[in-house]
Each structure stands twice: as C-alpha cells, then as structure tokens.
Amino acid sequence: MPANLPAEAKHKWEEASQARSPQEKIEKLREFLSLVPKHKGTENLRAQVKRKIAILRREIAEKKSKKVGKGGPRFFVEKEGDAQIVILGPTNVGRSSLLSLLTNAKVEISDYPYTTKEPTPGMFQYKDLQFQIVEAPALMEGSADGGAWGLQTLAAARNADGLLLMVDLSKDPVEQFSMTLRELEKARIFTREPKARVEIERKHVGAGFRIVVLGSLVDCTPKDVERLFKSYRIHDATVKIRGKAALDDVEDAIFESTVYRPAILIANKADHPNAEKRVEQLKDFVGGKLKIFPVSCKTMFGLEKIGSEIFEMLNIIRVYTKEPSKRLPSQKPFTIKRGSTILDLAKRIHSDFYEHFSYAKVWSKRLRFSPQKVGGSFVLEDGDTVEIHVK
Fold it and tell me: What is the pTM of this model?
C-alpha cells in the first residue's frame, strides 16, 4: 500500500477527485502520478491510477463515437432484471454458446478467437425471477493493464452482481482459471470475500470537518482515520467497514475500492474424454474456495441447474408483498439479501415505509400460524409474503 506520499501528491489527488469532466480528471491524475515516488510500495497505486486514466480515455472515445454515429464498443451494459451476471473467461471457452443457450441473445458463435468485441446481454428466466446474463469480451494476459478489450471486460465485472468464470476442459483448466483470477485481482475484483471491505462515501458539501467511521478498526483509531483524511483534504465522508480494517485498508479505499463479486467456476466441455481428470485438477487448485460446476454446451449437460446455482451464489431470497386492501400478494417478488429484516425490505420498497413503519404481517410456511404480526427486526426467508403497516 502506498504509505507516506508527499503532501503535494495528496493534495493533487484531492483535485483529481473533485474534477468534473473526464478530460480534467485525466490531467489531474497525470499530475498526481508525476508526484508519486517510484518504489515497490507505490507499484499498486501507480497501476491503479494508470488504469483509471485508460478507462477515462475509453469513456471519452466512446462518447465521441456516439456523437458522430460510429457506435463504438459499449463500456457498460445497463442493469435489467433481478440481478446482472457477467460471463468471464479466456477466448474460445464457450462464453457465446452459454449465453445463447441460456438467453434470447443473438450472438456470433465462432471458433475464431476474440469474436466478442463488446459486452452482450440476454435475459434468463429462473422461476419468477429474471437474471440478466452478459457475455464480456475475452480476458487475456494484460487485460487489467488495458490490453485489447480488457478494460471493458473488467468494468463489466466490477458493475455486475455476480460472475460466471468459464474454462475449457479440453485444455489445461488450471492455467485458464489462474490467468482469469490474476487479471481480476489486478483490477481489485475479488471472488472471495476479503477480511476487510471499506467503502467511502464522500459528501463534497457542508461546512466543517466530519468523518464518520462505521465498523471495526484494527491497529488504529477513528482519530487516526481523521488525520489520514485531513492529509488528503477530505473533509466530509462516511467510512463503512465490513470485517476489520487496518489504516492501510482505509487508505487503499481512498484510491480505488476493492470489490467482492460472488462467482461460480463453469467448467465447459464436460463431455471431453479428459474432463473428469481435469475437474479434479481444478478442485485441487481451488481448494473448495469456489464452487466448480461442470457443463457441456454441446450436449446441454448441467445447464438445467445453472439457474439454481446462480440463485444460491447471489445469496438472495424472494419476498412477496401484499397491500392491506388486497386479497392476493404481488406476483413479482422483491429480491433482497439472505438475512434481511422487515425494515430492510421496507427501506427497499420506499423510504416512507421505513421511516413510518409500525408493524408487519407475515405469511410463511415455517410459522406455526399465518399471518403473524411481527416487528421490524423479524428476519425474512425465501418465499415469505409481507404486508407492511405504517403509522
């Protein structure tokens, strides 16, 4: 982690953060980079800033191409449905075939490498949910440093709710998966939940100095965090911590937040003669830290279970709502994180339901009788029906 940056560099970073246009931000980031000392402790920081500059350049180029009607490659796919899942992997592992089999998307399927040039979406129906599946351009060594379409691919992964990481069992799957993992980690996208996740919400408004720390710190105090933020001229922010964060973790989040994206490892060509042996090699390499799901896009083996696997991976539940005046609940459920409470659902529906919450009625198979009157701390489960009453 970059420690002890010169004051001039910290001040220049603040100017870059406040920049309004992509072009101005690029200029400030370049100036910041020129002030960062070159040594081992700043390698990651310098790489992060260079990626930011490359992304901003692509965004400017994309906007220009749209203005002149060239319709260049898209950077982001706007989210639709209940969750967005991105298919990632090296070229020719079957990403296009999987998207075509799961969704209504019209894609070009070819043995020619790097056929997919931009993120391609399609909708996948699972029970009463719709998942948006996006095939991203292929990853390769150097994608995180801006190689080929790497920035589009990794931006899509960062924007997603979950990932399907694909490998081809007719080749060395460990080598393919290792490369994918390296490029994701370079872009600070992790498929295993880190010990500490830090999110910084900056206000950019208001008078005075106000830094709020929510969560647990190790090896430092909230006063240390305040001093750190003062050195970067950050005056009004909320620091949200999941797990236990050190001061280095907080400083790291100032530059680029680490994101966690749940993932499944899809091992394609399960019909290959060496598939069983190579799945075992993958299992040894992964060590139980990621679920491996063998499929065959050729024979359709395993594809019928992908919906339930995605649902489980996302760690979500379906909750149905009912208006007090109606006899039947809504047909379309809300999707919320497993472990969520009635108040979490109320906030999701509308702030008025959360702020003026009185009580709720819940219909559930696990209850001895339904409906049951409950308070805001009641923990919901998949399939529950909820009727919220306000004051």
Answer: 0.78
Q: What percent of the chain has pLDDT over 70?
A: 92
pLDDT tens digits, one per residue of 174-233: 999 999 999 998 888 889 877 778 888 877 655 567 899 999 999 899 999 999 888 888
368 against 115, higher pLDDT: 368
- CB burial class (10 A; 0-12, 13-18, 19+) of residue 21? exposed
Give φ, ψ of 67 to 5 degrees. Answer: -65, -40
pLDDT at residue 158 is higher than 80: yes
Residue 1, pLDDT score: 46
